[in-house]
Amino acid sequence: MSPFKSIAIDGPAGAGKSTIAKKVAETLGYVYIDTGAMYRAIAYECIRKNINIKDEEAINTLCSNIDIIIQYVDGEQQVLLNNENVTHYIRTTEVGNVTSQISVYHNVRKKLVELQQKLAHQANVIMDGRDIGTYVLPNANLKIFLTASIEQRAQRRWKELNDKGDQTQLKTLEAQIKERDYNDMNRKIAPLKKAEDAIEVDTSNMSIEEVVKKVISLYNKRIVENGNSNG
């Protein structure tokens, strides 16, 4: 049994998982593991090398020759792909769409899950994704399932991309999010779903500060007050 505590935050694209996980990690002094960034790094490499995303064998070969490290420099997450910093290249809409498609492959998930589980045995961590509470950290001390309406999620993603100069239309983002939801929920390996012991939090009408406060409150009740020792 690990001496460290872990918090799993799952949910669909655009529900605010990464934003909330980062802020909660800062408050609690936990290490934030951005699993989505790790999958995005592989997707980015597939795009860069013009690999057909339907060619599972080619992607398996890619995975066997790839190394992904997450580091923090001055409090900012840096994603290193084979020692190259790709942090600023992995947040595009194209990379996001490819990520959803390659994440169904067994070797992609196997490689990254092993690394994620190893990290959870080295420090107190908060990890966000789509299968953290059900597959990656099934014994997490606290499991949160963040959700929000498709309209709200698309609006948030539109603002995020627009601030970066990406002019993707709102309706296009809504369609893409619907497709990602379907792909994530229907993949054969570790599909997106709420863990039986996860607490659902609908963020549609909540501010970031309100969601963070809610998660901290759940942390205090589940881990601090009850002395939860799963892990």
What are the salient characteristics of this protein?
231 residues; alpha/beta; Rossmann fold; five-stranded parallel sheet; three-stranded antiparallel sheet; 9 helices; globular
Structure characterization notes:
It comes from Natranaerovirga hydrolytica. Belongs to the cytidylate kinase family. Type 1 subfamily. Residues 7-220 form the Cytidylate kinase domain. One of its GO terms (molecular function) is CMP kinase activity. Keywords: ATP-binding, Cytoplasm, Kinase, Nucleotide-binding, Transferase. With 231 residues, this protein is of the alpha/beta class. The protein has one domain (6-224): Rossmann fold (3-Layer(aba) Sandwich), CATH 3.40.50.300. The chain is built from nine helices and eight strands. The protein has helices at residues 17-28, 35-48, 56-64, 93-102, 106-120, 132-136, 150-163, 170-186, 208-225, and strands at 6-10, 31-34, 68-73, 76-81, 84-85, 125-129, 142-147, 199-202. The chain has a five-stranded parallel sheet, sandwiched between helices. Strands 3-4-5 form a three-stranded antiparallel sheet, with helices on one face. β3 (68-73) and β4 (76-81) form a beta hairpin. α1 (17-28) crosses α9 and α2 runs antiparallel to α5 (106-120). The longest helix has 18 residues, at 208-225. The protein is globular and about 50 Å long. The protein starts with 5 loop residues before the first strand and ends in a 6-residue tail after the last helix.
CATH superfamily: P-loop containing nucleotide triphosphate hydrolases
Globular, elongated, flat, extended or rod-shaped: what is the shape? Answer: globular
CATH C-level class is Alpha Beta
- Number of spatially distinct domains: 1
Strand order of the largest sheet: 2-6-1-7-8
Reported by name, the CATH topology is Rossmann fold
Instruction: List SSEs in N-to-C order.
Output: EHEHHEEEHHEHEHHEH
CATH architecture assignment: 3-Layer(aba) Sandwich
Beta-strand level of the residues, as a percent range?
Answer: 15-25%
Number of strands: 8
